Amino acid sequence: MRIERKFLLDPHLRLYLPLWKLDGTSFRSEDAYGHLCVATGSPWTPRGRTFNGSGQYITITAPPFLSDTQGTIIFRCNGTAGYPLAVEAGGNYFSVKTVALIEIYVGALILRGGIGTVGSTDDLTIAYTSNGSKIRGFVNGVERTFTVTSGTNSGQWFSSCTNATTFNIGGILSGGGDYTGRIKEVLLYNVSKTPSEILDDFLNE
After folding, report:
1. pTM
2. Most CB within 10 Å of its CB: which of 55, 86, 138, 159?
């Protein structure tokens, strides 16, 4: 028997985008704030919205969660190139990559970790979390070890991107790295989820 998706009742859920739902070219997220998301391209399929690596985005302008100092973001996706998410302020990014490696970029900080053994056609559930002092990454509920290749991992989150103006899915609007692949869902919380909570989310997806 399928377990009810209890995350929808979590008071810390800031954003939920079920991109597998058909809602037209403009659609509303299902979080408590009702942010309006604008889709440019990114055609709908029953398994999520697809991105061709060339200017296809889903954008939320100035959502309040850009000031969060910690949190958790979860993607259900499958891609071959590019960056599925970016928080932007001019040339300053908080961006993540989920292809071949899981990577995160915040200013001078660059973190890289392995995806592990997965099939090329498998959907992945990838989570990043910060408690304000350290960023951690998970693939299909299992924590991966990050290597710091630049800067210091001190738990940077969206607020580290000073004067951020957009939350963008599908690439970096002002800097390339457009995503090629499919994204099924995006979940965003304003708390750092524990490893057991992230595993529970994956098992009950």
Report:
1. 0.86
2. 86
